[in-house]
Amino acid sequence: MYRLDKFSKIGVFDSGLGGLSVLHTIRQIMPNESLIYIGDSGNAPYGTKEKSEVLNLSKKVCDTLVSKDVKAIVIACNTATSAAVNELRRAYDIPIIGMEPAIKPALRQTEGKVLLLATEMTLKEEKFHQLVDSLEEGYRIIKMPAPEWVQLVENHMSESDYVKKEVEGFLDKVTEKIDAIVLGCTHFIFLKPYIMAYYKDQVEIFDGNMGTALQLKNLLESHKWLNDNSEMGSVEIINTKSGVFVKKSYEMFDWLEMRDEF
Ligand code: DGL
Question: Measuring from each residue's beta carbon to the nearest atom of ligand 1, which residues come in under 6 Å?
Answer without folding.
Answer: 14-16, 18, 44-47, 77-79, 119, 122, 150, 185-187
